[in-house]
Structures are given as structure tokens and as C-alpha cells.
């Protein structure tokens, strides 16, 4: 397979904007390492973006094979997208990594099994939810190891039932329109209160809210594990379900879902969900109408040190940065901002748990003495709470302002 073919296929898999440059054009300037979380933590060239580009070039041109060490370096990328954002030549580095993972996974039994495991989990979400509840209950009384111990480390509180089984439609008092909320796996099964909170805010704006009962994961973990064919099945199902709804917009609390379903699907199956947006961006677009219903939060969080954490997909893929902080400062909060990866990275958290936790601890040290971290990604919240760090989703603060 040629390098140019690799880059084009990679953009087709994950929806990255095709670049005129390929990874063979890399001049090894090293700028991409400036915000690479795995390089920052492991301090080895081959665990950074530039090193991975060199490895991929060797895999394609010099007969280098997918050994355990090579696959380890390919899969320790968190796919945060910072390298793409920094590259002065616009090389699609993460796109090439996505593509090569489909090959690397097949060469290593552990990675192959992990990909198969993730695929089976997402095919049977209700069964997975039941299993999570049982594991959570047993974990309180029995010692667990392996991936189960990493699950326990997240300190999850499994809800009684998924969001999509509890709420299907919520009507506004004086509706001006109708929107759908795509819960995604994290909000649907682990943090359903965020879905209720978003629904309440949307009702306040005057929107009737629909929550599809057939919601699955967006498919991002499948792409991360090098299983694009399984992701295509999910993409087609979501296209069919969401296109059948009479709504103005699909809103989700997760920026990864937005990017995957809007751009990733377009490259995977030729059609993406155009009318989908992140909840923070939607609130920003409607802020003039919502602001009169909100009280300032300055007194609620008087003398509190609050850090706004920008999720990777928000700043590096969707290129949104001003929305959340602008609104919260407008509500009277003093914020510091941080735009480095929290270390979750989807499957990365379970494949490389120690490195993942080392990264989030590093972030906490950088935050200093902040009393609370606010972010707009539910996966980031899981990561921070798993490390014992007080964190809230942006939408939760909007709800507090409405209640005040």
C-alpha cells in the first residue's frame, strides 16, 4: 500500500479533512511533540507524534513488521488531534494512525481481543449496562483484576436505568421548535443526570426534546480500536434513526460524538449527520435568549478557583474554544483555562491505565489549587472523577444559574 493511499484511506475512515501533504512530507521539525500527551509522559521519541510518523513510514517502505513493540507505540497515541492542529504542513497524522491501527490490531492477540470485546459491548448495549451494574455491585465486595480493576478505578456509580429508557420526550411550556438529544454511551448508561439537565435547559429555551430509544454509541471507540467495518454498521443505523425524526437539530453532550457522526460518518459511508451540534455550541448560539433566565453564579461560587478544561475534540477537531468560557464568565465566574489532554482517550484508559492516570495527575498539578474543573465532555468528567478530582459538565452550571 502506498503512503498516499494510506493517507487518503485514513481520511476516509475517520472524517479528517484531506491534506495535500502526506506523512512522507514530514520534515521532522518536532513541533507536533509540543502538545503530545504520550510523549510528554513517556519521554521517548517513538511514543510521540513525530516518532509514530517515522514508524509508519518504515512499516510501509522498509519491511518493518507489526511487532508487539511497534503496535504498542501505535496504540499509545490518544488520538487527541493536537499534532494535526500544530503541524505547519497540515499533515494528517492521526488519520494515518487510525489507518495503521486496523493492521496493527490484527497482529497482536491482546489488541485483537480488545477490539472484539468493544465491538460486542456496543452491539448489545442493554446487556452491557446490566453487566456493568453486576460488576459494580460485586466490585464492592470482591477483588477484581485486569480490565475490571480499571473499570472500578473510575469510581462509577451505575444508575438504576439508562436515560433512553427513562425519558423519551419532554415538552416545553411554549414550544418554538423540536430537537433531539443524542445521549451517547457515556451519558446514556453512566451519567444520565446530564441528559436530564440538558433537557431541562432546552425546555427553558422553548424546545420540545426527543430522546431516541435506540441510541447506541457513536462508534468512536470502534474506530480507535481499528475496527472501521463495525463502525460502519453503527453509522448506518444512526443515519436511519435520526433522519427519521422531525427535528431541527440533534444535540449531544459529547464533542467526540459530534465529530464522529458529522464528519466520520461522511467518510465512512458517504453520509454524515449534518444537523448535529455540541450542547455548549448550541447554548452559545441561543445565549441571547437564555441569558435573561439566568442569575449570576459569582455568589454561588464566591472565591472559588475554577478551571475550564477544553476537551481535545472540541479544540482540535471542532475548533471551538471561546463558547464555554465566554458564557461562564458572562455569568460572573472567574476562570483559568487549560487545553491539554486529560488522558482518557476512550479505549486508551483501559489499555494503558497507569499512563492514563499519570497524565490526569499531571494535569491536576498544572491546574494548581483549583476547587473545581468544568468541561464539556462526559468522558473527561469520568477521567477527573476517577482521579478524585471535583468536576462538572458545562451544562450543569447552566442549570444551576437557571435555578438560582
Summary, kept brief:
This protein is of the alpha/beta class. It is 54% helix and 8% strand. It has four domains: 3-107, Fumarate Reductase Iron-sulfur Protein, Chain B, domain 2 (Orthogonal Bundle); 112-153, no CATH class; 163-287, 3-Layer(aba) Sandwich (Rossmann fold); 293-403, Rossmann fold, CATH 3.40.50.
Descriptive account of the structure:
This protein is α/β, with parallel strands linked by helices. It has four domains: 3-107, Fumarate Reductase Iron-sulfur Protein, Chain B, domain 2; 112-153, no CATH class; 163-287, Rossmann fold, CATH 3.40.50; 293-403, 3-Layer(aba) Sandwich (Rossmann fold). 54% of the residues lie in helices and 8% in strands. The protein is built from 23 helices and nine strands. The protein has helices at residues 3-14, 37-42, 49-61, 68-75, 82-86, 93-107, 109-123, 125-139, 146-153, 163-166, 184-189, 192-204, 220-224, 228-243, 255-269, 279-285, 287-290, 312-317, 323-330, 348-351, 353-367, 378-386, 394-403, and strands at 169-170, 177-182, 207-210, 249-252, 276-278, 306-309, 335-338, 372-375, 391-393. The strands form two sheets. Strands 1-3-2-4-5 form a five-stranded mixed beta sheet, sandwiched between helices. Helix 15 links the parallel strand 4 and strand 5. Helix 1 crosses helix 6 (93-107), helix 1 packs across helix 15 (255-269) and helix 12 packs across helix 23 (394-403). It is globular, with a radius of gyration of 21 Å. It starts with a helix and ends with a helix. Residues 1-19 have low confidence and may be disordered.
Amino acid at each position: 500500500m502506498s503512503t498516499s493511499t494510506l493517507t487518503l484511506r485514513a481520511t476516509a475512515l475517520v472524517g479528517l479533512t484531506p491534506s495535500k501533504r502526506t506523512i512522507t512530507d514530514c520534515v521532522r521539525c518536532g513541533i507536533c511533540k509540543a502538545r503530545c500527551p504520550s510523549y510528554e509522559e513517556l519521554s521517548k521519541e517513538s511514543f510521540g507524534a513525530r516518532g509514530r510518523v517515522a514508524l509508519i513510514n518504515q512499516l510501509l517502505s522498509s519491511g518493518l513488521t507489526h511487532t508487539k513493540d511497534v503496535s504498542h507505540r501505535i496504540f499509545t497515541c490518544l488520538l487527541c488531534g493536537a499534532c494535526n492542529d500544530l503541524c505547519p504542513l497540515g499533515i494528517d497524522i492521526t488519520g494515518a494512525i487510525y489507518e495503521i491501527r486496523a493492521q496493527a490490531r490484527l497482529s497482536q492477540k491482546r489488541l485483537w481481543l480488545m477490539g472484539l470485546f468493544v465491538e460486542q459491548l456496543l452491539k448489545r448495549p442493554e446487556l452491557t449496562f446490566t453487566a456493568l451494574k453486576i460488576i459494580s455491585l460485586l466490585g464492592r465486595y470482591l477483588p477484581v483484576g485486569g480490565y475490571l480493576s480499571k473499570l472500578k478505578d473510575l469510581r462509577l456509580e451505575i444508575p438504576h436505568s439508562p436515560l433512553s429508557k427513562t425519558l423519551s420526550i419532554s415538552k416545553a411550556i411554549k414550544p418554538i421548535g423540536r430537537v433531539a438529544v443524542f445521549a451517547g454511551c457515556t451519558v446514556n448508561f453512566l451519567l444520565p443526570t446530564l441528559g436530564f439537565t440538558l433537557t431541562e435547559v432546552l425546555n427553558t429555551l422553548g424546545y420540545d426534546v426527543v430522546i431516541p430509544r435506540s441510541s447506541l454509541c457513536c462508534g468512536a471507540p470502534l474506530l480507535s480500536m481499528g475496527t472501521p467495518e463495525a463502525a460502519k454498521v453503527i453509522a448506518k443505523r444512526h443515519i436511519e434513526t435520526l433522519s427519521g425524526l422531525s427535528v431541527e437539530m440533534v444535540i449531544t453532550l459529547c464533542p467526540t460524538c459530534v465529530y464522529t457522526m458529522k464528519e466520520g460518518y461522511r467518510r465512512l459511508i458517504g453520509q454524515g449527520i449534518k444537523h448535529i451540534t455540541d450542547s455548549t455550541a448550541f447554548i452559545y448560539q441561543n445565549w441571547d435568549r437564555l441569558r435573561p433566565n439566568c442569575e449570576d453564579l459569582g455568589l454561588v461560587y464566591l472565591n472559588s478557583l475554577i478551571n475550564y478544561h477544553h476537551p481535545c475534540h472540541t479544540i482540535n477537531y471542532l475548533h471551538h474554544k471561546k463558547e464555554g468560557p465566554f458564557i461562564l464568565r458572562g455569568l460572573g465566574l472567574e476562570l483559568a483555562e487549560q487545553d491539554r489532554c486529560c488522558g482518557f482517550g476512550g479505549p486508551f484508559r483501559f489499555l494503558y491505565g497507569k499512563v492514563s492516570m499519570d497524565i490526569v495527575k499531571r494535569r491536576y498539578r498544572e491546574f494548581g489549587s483549583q476547587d473545581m474543573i468544568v468541561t464539556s465532555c462526559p468522558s473527561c468528567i469520568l477521567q477527573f472523577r476517577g482521579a478524585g478530582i471535583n468536576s462538572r459538565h458545562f451544562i450543569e452550571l447552566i442549570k444551576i444559574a437557571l435555578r438560582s
